[in-house]
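Sample pair:
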Amino acid sequence: MSLLNALNRMSASLQAAADHRTQRQAATDKAQSKATDTAADNSSGNTDSVTLSAERARVFKPQLKIQHYKYDIGQDHAVVKETLRHKLAEYELNPATRIGVEKDPGGKITLNARMPDAVRARIEQDLNNNQQFKSAFYRLSVNEPALEFVDNVMKLNHAYGVKNPLLDSITSENEQFNGLQDLVHRYDTLRRNVSAQQVEAAGASKPYAFSYNA
């Protein structure tokens, strides 16, 4: 009887040990499975993040509001054109007279037009004494070249799919920093820093001139 009891106790002990090993193995397998799932999730998340970042970089195109920029300088255009129209009428000149308005190195406004020298000199004096005209013309001399550059490059890009690194250098991925004055500032910096060949190729080397009746 005691032998039977001893065998029963031994059997129970072996069964308990086996059950313990089974539970421990199950716990180990569960932990490994969880770690594998976590690593897979992290890998998937990183892949998605990289993919999204690459996608954003690939599809980014600056939303430059060309028509809005043109509207911004439209008032200055109107001031300059209307003043020149009045001057032609005031001095009884042909209203279709072609006039080029420029700045000399000293910042003085000069005219390039077919008219008597004495009349041209008087009109130039009038324009240089007209603060509204001078301010409008000076703003145009800064804003219009930058806008013309951006407009031309974007037309080429749209027509032929041609990217221009100079345009990329003056635009921002943050749309709120692509206002006209932002572009003008970066364009001016670009003109000062890039090589003469690049500036000429970009059409940025010509001195500004306002053309009337041209």
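The radius of gyration is 38 Å.
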